[in-house]
Amino acid sequence: MPPHFSLLVRPSSRGFFLPLLLSCAGVLALSGCAGQKTTQTGFIAPQTYAQMVHPKGHTDDLVYVAPGLQPGAYRYAVIAPVLWHPVNKAPVLKPEIQARMTEAFESELRKTLGEDFKILPASPLVTAPSGPFSAGNFPPGTLRISAAITNLRRSKWYYNALPIVAGFAAGAAGGGLPPIPPPAPGGASEELLATDAMTGASVLAIATYNNGMPWNMVGQWLPYAHARRAFHLAALLMKEEVHKTGLASASPAQPSWKSPT
After folding, report:
1. Tens-digit pLDDT profile for residues 55-73
2. What is the CATH number of domain 36-154+185-245?
3. In the chain, count of helices (H) and strands (E)?
């Protein structure tokens, strides 16, 4: 047993803790490769992805900002339906889980970006070989926000309980254990793209992710709580880039434009 464990665990209880510690170590080893990271799935065009950099304060994320953007150029936003666009070796999600997660991410984008833009209905979008785009039915100053969930891991409470049980057991025996992070906290990776709804030109692109945090105890037990937190943080990162670039006008407009029927 390592020296630091010898100081924390009474000799009389080491026979009890050794199997428990080995179990925790085994779970950590099995789940260690399941953490999220930035992805490149093709959802963002390769030529755009090649220009993405780590922004200040977000060294784990990648961001592209088109050069020569005009401050205050956008007053409206259209949120396209969020897609499940998995990276290789992503887990297979049941259709109902895909629907729940994409709807949750889309809701976060609408709520967060709705603080800076007037959100317009997506009905004028049509389908072309290059994907959904504006057919000229949106007013000038409209951003089209596309997003995809590219990887997702559910939190597994039956693994995350092992370090907690080990800690309680050590305390009951009069010893202690160093903090052990939850081995299967869950999380999600996302790719986001903002384009000019009239021209189709790329304006912003983001590749981001978030893993579950040890302090978020609820997220260790609920299967997709940490994934939902990742969606929230991705929407906040898009909002932050909008503010940094000054894309949004001072206040959301009240448009006289109406969606064609």
Report:
1. 988 989 999 999 999 889 9
2. 3.30.160
3. 7, 9
